[in-house]
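Problem statement: downstream parser choked on a complex file, so we are re-checking the raw output for the pyridoxal-5'-phosphate run. The parser issue turned out to be on our end (a line-ending mismatch), but while we're here, posting the original submission so the record is complete.
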Amino acid sequence: MKFVSTRGQAPAVDIDAALVAGLAPDGGLYVPDTIPAADLARPRDSLADTALATLAPWFAGSRIQSHLPGLCADAFAWPAPLRALAGDGDHLLELFHGPTAAFKDYAARFLAGALSALRTPHAADSTILVATSGDTGAAVASAFHRRPGFAVVILYPEGRVSPRQAHGLECWGDNVRAFRIDGSFDDCQRLAKDALSDADLRARRPLTTANSISLGRLLPQAAYYAHAAAHHYAAHARPLNVIVPTGNLGNACAAFIARAMGAPLGEIRLACNANDTLPRFFGGAGYLPQPTRATLANAMDVGAPSNFERLRHWHGDDVALRGAFVARSVDDAAIRATIRNAEARHGIVPCPHTAAGLHLLEALRADGDRRDWAVVATAHPAKFDAIVEPLVGHAVPVPPALAACLARPAQGVRLGREPDALRRMLLDA
Ligand SMILES: *Cc1c(COP(=O)(O)O)cnc(C)c1O
């Protein structure tokens, strides 16, 4: 299986090279020449088994093909329950049971295992450069912490993540360093992309990415959609439709991949916050990246969703792409109201990102939609206690893994947002 760049100016590579490189040398994202099919309609016992079935075709011929069962067992070690909510056909796909309480734990853990397995003995240490709007950095830090041969550099927008998210980025130490950038997530992402496409820098300091632009992050995420959809279909003989809280489009792309591979998924609907680049595009306007706006659902504060290039590549032209997805913007007032009413209405307390998805579900029901829907619960509400608790009027219990992370001391460093500051820091380290 070969992977080409969305920008068409880089040589085709195999999966191993695509994983190690992260970003293609022409600045594009790696995409497969075709999306392979797999028997994903059959429900499997464990999430790790489904992950193996989902990932096996992608790793045919890889140097680490024989490691795949172990990598899947390690990365899909905690459940992703599809929980039925109070309303008919309403579900929550809970992806927040991992070590840093967000869905990104699964794929970050997989990528860390895969890159470790791909490492050749005596290779120079590799630096994982990760721009984060709050949750990616913690998941990547947890996955790579104390892993021999790897260092992690996290760039995050100062003041734009929740206090508990900031703690989760800064509490690691050892081979993990966190830098606060005076800017937005898009500034952080631009810094990371510039460094990754700086051939001179990369020759002196082996660099890779763990953002969802990396295939090693993207592909594993297809597994929990395949698992939930297969079990739902086996029980009800109806496809599962999903509402995905969306920022960089990584999680939604993974749902698209799962469906394209054969998982019994129906519609994939995108819930965005006030950053409405995607709702505007899908509503018929052009693709016009916007400066980021800070919202309550900060992990979705993205004005230039990086995986858009992949969706465009797969759909050929914008008319076809617009026909394939519905995207809606949910503002902070609606997110607040949804959190406030969620216990009475659905029997759950959502994080602000999940609340954006729930809001779209409520709108669909109000329009008379009778299909089976799962809102993807992307993070645990305890990570956003300062927002959620005043709205629901009580404390939200902290899951044990998150509590352990919060109990450790935190330390981060400020870094200027000019590209040279990052370059100098990477070369000095
Ligand atoms: C990262 C994240 C999102 C957005 O996911 P994308 O793959 O970037 O679209 C949504 N919610 C939470 C809690 C996240 O951490």
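For whoever reads this later: DSSP finds 19 helices and 13 strands in the chain.
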